[in-house]
Structure prediction request, 89 residues.
Amino acid sequence: MRAEGAERAYRELKVAVDEKLKDAYRALEQAQANISAQMDKQVAAEYRAQQAEAEAREAKRALELVEEAIRRRLLTDSVRQFDRLNAVA
Prediction:
């Protein structure tokens, strides 16, 4: 009888330990999945940031080109007006 009780207690303890190990393993898997998802999000955010920086550089360069074209146009117009004034005088 006593041996049967000890055997039953041992089996119950083993089942409880197995369940706790399974729970711990599931928690570990979930934690690893969360870490992986966060890393994926971080990589995606870094990529988007790099893309935004590249687009900002392109936009800045385009604005610089427009600014230069406007300056050239204004300078050309100013020279033409100056030439016309000199021609009249």
In short: The CA atoms of residues 34 and 40 lie 10 Å apart. The chain has a mean pLDDT of 92. The longest helix spans residues 2-88.
